[in-house]
Specification:
The complex is a heterotetramer of chains A (218), B (561), C (196) and D (207).
Chain A: H1 19-35, H2 44-63, H3 69-98, H4 100-108, H5 120-140, H6 154-157, E1 166-171, E2 175-181, E3 188-193, E4 198-202, H7 203-211, E5 215-217
Antiparallel strand pairs in A: 1-4, 1-5, 2-3
Helix pairs in contact in A: 1-2, 1-3, 2-3, 4-5
Chain B: H1 6-14, E1 19-24, H2 27-42, E2 47-52, H3 55-65, E3 71-75, H4 83-87, E4 94-98, E5 101-102, H5 106-110, E6 115-117, H6 130-133, H7 138-142, H8 156-185, E7 189-190, H9 194-204, H10 210-225, H11 231-254, E8 264-272, H12 282-288, H13 290-296, H14 301-314, H15 318-322, H16 330-346, E9 353-361, E10 365-368, H17 369-380, H18 389-399, H19 405-431, E11 436-437, E12 442-445, H20 459-476, E13 487-494, E14 499-505, H21 517-528, E15 532-533, E16 541-545, H22 549-560
Helix pairs in contact in B: 2-9, 2-10, 9-10, 10-11, 10-17, 13-20, 14-16, 17-18, 17-19, 18-19, 19-20, 21-22
Chain C: H1 4-15, H2 26-51, H3 58-93, H4 99-102, H5 107-126, E1 148-153, E2 158-161, E3 167-170, E4 175-179, H6 180-188, E5 192-195
Helix pairs in contact in C: 1-2, 1-3, 2-3, 3-5
The chains are: A alpha+beta (218), B alpha/beta (561), C mainly alpha (196), D mainly alpha (207).
Chain lengths: 218, 561, 196, 207
């Protein structure tokens, strides 16, 4: 990995990163996505850069000699990166399809300059998915129902993520005064999260901390 | 041609290529295949493995899989048949043959470009000289070419004399060649185990480990158990492997505790000729192992008594002997081997032990090489309908891996069933006096309808039966001549097609594994127009139409008398 | 009782094992829709009568309304859960369904499947931007342990061309050492078995 | 395997499309009509006449009972189903482990929670019983899930409610995964379960 030049990466944000750093970030995003009940904001730039990287490596390898041990190691590395990327995107896709109505509703309510959780391509697929589902339901049953029942009520049928589920996390940067509602009725309590410590907490409480990289899910 | 540097001339040639590996149905071949797989996997050599039961399948498999393949490895198949003539390969295809079957086909030996024989030069091949076999150029075409004598008529007479002289020489040469070939091909036998050859390769590449060594050991033990190697040669090979064992396991001697229980440990030990006793009861093992069973004549009341006496002499209570070996008293289990060998000497079972190896890994698994051979073979020749023959071949291949101990345990059970069937068949044949001395050889025919007959439709199991029967017959026979007689056993192969499997084995008295039945079967078949199929790579095993059996055997008797 | 036919559709799905789809019950759906039609018409009539001053009809309207909603929920749930299984099949079987599974689908479900296929393919192609060449998410389902793996052929599959143009014959009981990425999908489809 | 990435037990949560939820809300509640319902007499097989008379007692599925009995309207009044009444509650508190919960209602817990919505006087006690029963049985279920590998578990699961079965399965999957990992089998790429099941069924049909 290290001897491969990543400076060509088109995006400005990730321009200065080394390949190893980029990979570490993708892996972090992957784990967070894997353990979070809701869809997290997309990391399309990272994905694009990594894929670019993969294609570059692939080309290098195709030029390598037969039986070159280095080529084998690079191939292995490619497989591994591809797995992480594919798994990351797969998890997102499953959440998108599962919570499609919920996400599209949220999307519709977004302000002008608030970025979407989904990448444009993911959003397109989500729209297709919702439209396909509606077409199917309409054609087979809804169309034939009495007139006041013909509509698919998105808000009623939408499945939404359970933000009250518990997650394991590791603290990356010290965060003070996190409000946690304790079990029972004693009300809320504030705790400090020490760097490096690990916790089990309700997702709802720590969700904002994931987005600014203060904690990672494990 | 023979390869002298197996690493340079074989491995380095194929290391970046795709290889087709054709593997015959025997334990040695499986072990060799395992070692080769390991080496290929280390170096990312892409390969395809195809199980091969016989000559016909060899041809089919080559036809089907050879597209784009430049390198073919054959394990325990292909050595004793003319590969180029049989397979008609394209010119760029190169065959690497590790095959313990002897004699090696002479065209294979003398082809320098396409056929590379992976066989140790230390083996005794007795290859006839090239000039005695092949005569190049002119002499080849003048034999049939009368028409090209366009020489002027004046010189014709002298020429004619020259030609006559040349023809006479030619005829002599051909007669001599024929005789040489006859001598060379008279006996079929076996050479060095292919697993040993592959282990040697691994060692030369410094890739050897206890796992690979174990496969080498099991391959060699397969030859020993199934009478494919003479005792002397076996001892030499065991000595060789013993050195490797010491080298790879020396660390364990000093600090036993530092080695994780998951590691495999191999050590040399005197092993008893008691099949599977660690996984059975001593009593069952004694009954089912040909050596003690025949020594005691276990099928007679007197024999049984003698065995009980023997056990009592050893100081082993019958209860202990009859229960599972694993649950025998600790003390007895430890001292048993010493007691046993001592009593054996007293009872004339001098030949009860042989040098072999034991592998140990984990807490539970302690296996001796011979038992592994029985188990792998039991699995490979399983006759249950659940899987096809090739399916069981692959099961057997699997069970050699340490992580598949479960499959090996199943193999042990299947092996017990094989041995039980063999023992019962031998007993009933002896009781009913169904083993016939046909004159020049002993003969037994397993009739159809026998419930366990399907076991003997597999060559190796039929072989085990033949050797057990021969030993039992010799033990009961008063005439000393019986030890000088070879034996032929036939068993039904396929009831629908009405075919039988026939095997011939050399006389008991003979130390050598040389077997002349391959040639004899061939001639008897030709003389009687019997419908036979010489498909097995071991030429002393053939298939034939059951209807042709009597005329075939009549011819065989007169041929050998 | 109202809603019985509808819940029977749900029970049918509940009984059928994971990964299978019972035949599309067109007749059952028609019957539920018919029940809904009748319920609706009776309610219309009762509402009209109530507007005209007839007393005591409200409880009946209430009951029928609940039944209508229940029927709708069951029908949609029937459709949705079938769709979910079909979606899972896209990931497990690939873009072409076995014929006897296809046989159990309605025309509209087949259409849904091909639209889903199309949208998914378009999405996978778009990954990595226009120059990225896409990423097949149906591959790489397990973290790779090694570049090459040993596989065993469980059935006669015929010829198979690997990435580098090599042609292999995948014949039952032959065993091959191949690049993992090239044969993973065949393992998933049960053609090959991964040998450790 | 597409599923393993996100494993929320949505099966157990209320959801418009949930099969389990639909089946739970299909469970019967004993009801008594407070007002007569005109023209729907046929719903009660024991009734005479075209109307359902006030005072008629019959069991209605939960979804219907709920629609007819709320704070706003009381077309019916409800009683707790037998398995949630005092008698069974006592049995459960005596030894919850031996009770066949599946027989008491395949969705015993979920349905019990739904029943709370009627605001019956013994709602609190029912809720206590559910909690007690669950925590008593949970230990045992997890214990047996962790201790029978490759065994026929129908004897154990037969007496479990649907929620418990899901938990049992999760426990078993964990155990199998652990054993796979232990024996080095976890790296093995396996055919998709759908494909395996599909083939199995096909083979059976073939026989």
């Amino acid at each position: 990995m290290d001897d491969l030049d990543i400076e060509e990466g088109s995006d400005e944000e990730v321009e200065q990163m080394t390949a190893a750093e980029a990979l570490a970030m993708v892996e972090k995003a992957w784990l967070n996505e894997k353990f979070s009940p809701e869809l997290l904001p997309h990391k399309q730039d990272l994905v694009d850069v990594m894929l670019d990287q993969l294609n570059g490596m692939q080309e290098n390898i195709s030029r390598a000699k037969k039986g070159d041990l280095k080529a084998s190691i690079h191939k292995m590395e490619i497989d591994r990166i591809r797995y992480v990327l594919a798994s990351y995107l797969r998890i997102r896709l499953e959440k998108i399809e599962k919570f499609v109505h919920h996400l599209l509703e949220e999307e519709a309510e977004l302000g002008e300059d608030v970025p979407s959780r989904m990448s444009p391509e993911e959003l397109q697929h989500a729209k297709n998915f919702a439209a396909n589902m509606e077409t199917l339901f309409n054609d087979v049953v809804l169309r034939h129902m009495p007139r006041n029942l013909k509509k698919l009520e998105g808000s009623k049928v939408a499945a939404s993520p359970n933000k009250d589920s518990y997650v394991f996390l590791q603290v990356q940067e010290q965060v003070d005064q996190v409000m946690v509602d304790t079990a029972g009725d004693q009300g809320d309590e504030a705790i400090d999260l020490e760097k490096g410590s690990q916790h089990i907490m309700r997702y709802r409480v720590v969700a904002p901390l994931i987005n600014n990289d203060a904690v990672t899910l494990i | 041609m023979f390869v002298t540097d197996i690493r340079k001339e074989f491995y380095d040639k194929v290391v970046h290529e795709r290889v087709l590996v054709l593997v015959a149905f025997d334990v040695d071949a499986l072990c060799a295949c395992k070692i080769l797989q390991y080496l290929f996997q280390c170096d990312h050599v892409q390969y395809t493995i195809v199980p091969i039961t016989g000559r016909q399948e060899l041809e089919n498999a080559f036809l089907e899989h050879s597209e784009q393949v430049k390198y073919v490895v054959m394990i325990n198949c292909g050595g004793n048949i003319n590969i180029l003539e049989t397979l008609q390969p394209a010119e760029h295809v190169i065959f690497f043959i590790a095959d313990s079957h002897r004699p090696v086909d002479l065209v294979n030996v003398y082809n320098d470009d396409q056929v590379k024989l992976l066989m140790p030069t230390t083996d005794d091949f007795d290859i006839p000289a090239y000039d005695d076999l092949f005569k190049d150029d002119e002499s080849d075409d003048d034999s049939g070419n009368e028409s090209d004598s366009s020489a002027p008529s004046g010189k014709r007479r002298r020429l004619d004399e020259e030609v006559l002289e040349r023809r006479r020489e030619r005829r002599l040469w051909e007669e001599k060649r024929k005789q040489i070939l006859l001598d060379y091909e008279e006996f079929s036998t076996y050479g060095t185990s292919s697993a040993m050859i592959m282990f040697d390769l691994a060692w030369k590449m410094s890739k050897d480990s206890n796992d690979l060594l174990w496969w080498g050991i099991v391959g060699l033990t397969d030859q020993y158990i199934n009478n494919r190697v003479e005792r002397g040669k076996y001892m030499t090979d065991v000595g060789d492997l013993h050195k490797h064992t010491l080298r790879l396991n020396h660390r364990n001697e000093d600090d036993d505790n530092t080695v994780s229980v998951d590691c495999m440990r191999i050590y040399f030990d005197e092993e008893l000729k008691l099949a599977l006793y660690r996984h059975w009861s001593l009593f069952e093992s004694l009954k089912h192992s040909s050596y003690p069973a025949c020594k005691f004549k276990m099928w007679t009341v007197k024999g049984q008594q003698k065995m009980h006496e023997f056990l009592a002499d050893m100081g082993l209570p019958l209860v202990q002997v009859k229960q599972k070996f694993t649950s025998m008293d600790m003390g007895l289990k430890e001292s048993f081997k010493g007691l046993f060998t001592a009593s054996c000497e007293k009872y004339g079972l001098d030949d009860i032990s042989f040098g072999s190896f034991i592998a140990q890994y984990g807490y539970k698994n302690k296996l001796c090489a011979a038992d592994v051979v029985y188990a792998v073979n039991g699995l490979m020749e399983c006759v249950e309908a659940e899987k096809s023959a090739t399916g069981y071949f692959l099961e057997a291949l699997d069970c050699l891996s340490r992580q598949n101990v479960k499959k090996l345990l199943r193999g042990l059970d299947l092996a017990k069933r094989q041995l039980t069937t063999i023992m019962q068949t031998v007993h009933s044949f002896i009781d009913m006096k169904q083993i016939i001395s046909a004159g020049p050889f002993l003969y037994a025919y397993i009739p159809e309808g026998h419930p366990d007959v399907k076991f003997f439709s597999r060559p190796n199991c039929l072989g085990m039966l033949a050797y057990f029967m021969q030993e039992a017959y010799v033990a009961t026979s008063r005439s000393r001549r019986s030890t000088l007689l070879p034996m032929v056993v036939a068993a039904p192969l396929n009831a629908e097609t009405g075919s039988a499997l026939v095997i011939g084995i050399p006389p008991k008295a003979e130390e050598s594994t040389k077997n002349f039945f391959g040639r004899a079967f061939e001639q008897a078949a030709i003389q009687t127009n019997s419908r036979t199929l010489h498909d097995n790579f071991d030429t002393s095993i053939i298939e034939m139409k059951s209807e042709d059996r009597s005329k075939f055997f009549d011819a065989l008797i007169s041929l050998l008398s | 009782m109202y809603g019985e036919k509808a819940v029977e559709l749900i029970r049918q799905l509940h009984r059928s094992p994971d990964g299978s789809l019972p035949p599309f019950n067109e007749d059952g759906i028609r019957q539920v829709l018919e029940e809904m039609r009748v319920l609706f018409e009776q309610n219309q009539a009762d509402v009209n009568k109530t507007v005209d001053g007839a007393p005591g009809l409200f409880p009946g309207v209430q009951l029928r309304h609940a039944a209508l909603e229940r029927n709708k929920r069951c029908l949609l749930a029937y459709m949705f859960n079938r769709m979910e299984r079909l979606r899972a099949m896209r990931w497990e079987f690939g873009s072409v369904l076995p014929p006897d599974i296809k046989y159990n689908l309605s025309e509209q479900e087949i259409q849904w499947f091909s639209r889903y296929n199309k949208s998914l393919a378009a999405y996978m192609r778009s990954i990595g931007g226009p120059s990225g060449g896409g990423l097949d998410l149906t591959q790489d389902l397990k973290p790779p342990k090694s570049l090459y793996i040993e596989v065993r052929c469980l059935m006669d599959h015929g010829e198979f061309e690997t990435e580098d143009g090599t042609i292999l014959l995948l014949k039952k009981d032959s065993q091959h050492f191949l690049q993992r990425s090239q044969c993973e999908h065949l393992i998933r489809q049960g053609v090959l078995e991964h040998i450790l | 395997m597409f599923a393993p990435c996100v494993k929320y037990p949505t099966r157990l949560r209320e959801n418009y499309f949930s099969i389990d939820d639909i089946l739970t809300t299909q469970e019967k509640v004993p009801c008594k009509f407070q007002s007569s319902v005109l023209g729907l007499g046929f719903l009660d097989p024991g009734a005479e006449g075209t109307d359902l008379a006030a005072g008629t007692a019959m069991e209605l599925p939960y979804w219907l009972a709920r629609a007819l009995c709320s704070r706003k309207r009381r077309i019916v009044t409800v009683e707790m189903p037998k398995p949630y009444r005092e008698g069974y509650r006592q049995i459960l508190s005596a030894d919850a482990n031996v009770v066949d919960l599946h027989k008491l209602g395949p969705y015993y817990y979920a349905f019990g929670i739904y029943l709370q919505s009627f605001g019956q006087p013994d709602a609190g006690e029912i809720s206590n019983t559910l909690l007690q029963t669950f925590s008593t049985r949970f230990r045992r279920i997890m214990d047996s899930a962790q201790n029978c590998l490759n065994e026929d578990t129908t004897a154990v699961t037969g007496k479990l409610d649907e929620l418990e079965r899901v938990l049992f399965r999760v426990g078993q999957e964990g155990l199998t995964a652990f054993h796979c990992w232990q024996s080095g089998q976890s790296a093995k790429i396996v055919p998709s379960t759908m494909v395996t099941n599909y083939r199995k069924r096909k083979r059976q049909d073939g026989d």
